[in-house]
């Protein structure tokens, strides 16, 4: 098991590798024309990064490194007790257009407005 300092150093190496890979992968790619193209490029990048691109300091892919350390395929979930360079990736299920409503912000605003308009706020101050 790594101590805290080793985990921090590995975290910095992991971020550096990810940034180098991002630059390498996207350097000659055109900007996506729409959300669908953007999603496709990001999915391709994560597959390439995890399964194909060898890390500059180890010569192994993140999947190979994970298997070597833990003896199993990486799972697509984050586990802070098992540091890995495998990059978890999944799309959020929420709809961007309804994001405010999904977070309940609209409902909270309505409740606050109602409390203020009906004098509840002023009466609660004592």
Characterization of the model:
The chain is mostly helical. It folds into two domains: 88 residues, no CATH class; 32 residues. Helices cover 57% and strands 0% of the residues. It has six helices and no strands.
Largest sheet: none
Q: Structural class, please?
A: mainly alpha
The whole-number mean of residue pLDDT values reads 79
Q: What is Rg?
A: 22 Å
Uncertain regions: pLDDT < 50 for 5+ in a row? 120-126
State the helix count: 6
The end-to-end span amounts to: 56 Å
Order of helices and strands: HHHHHH
Instruction: Please tell me the total number of domains.
Output: 2
Query: Level of helix content?
Result: 55-70%
Instruction: Specify the overall morphology.
Output: extended
> What is the tally of beta strands?
0
**Roughly what fraction of the amino acids lie in strands?**
under 5%
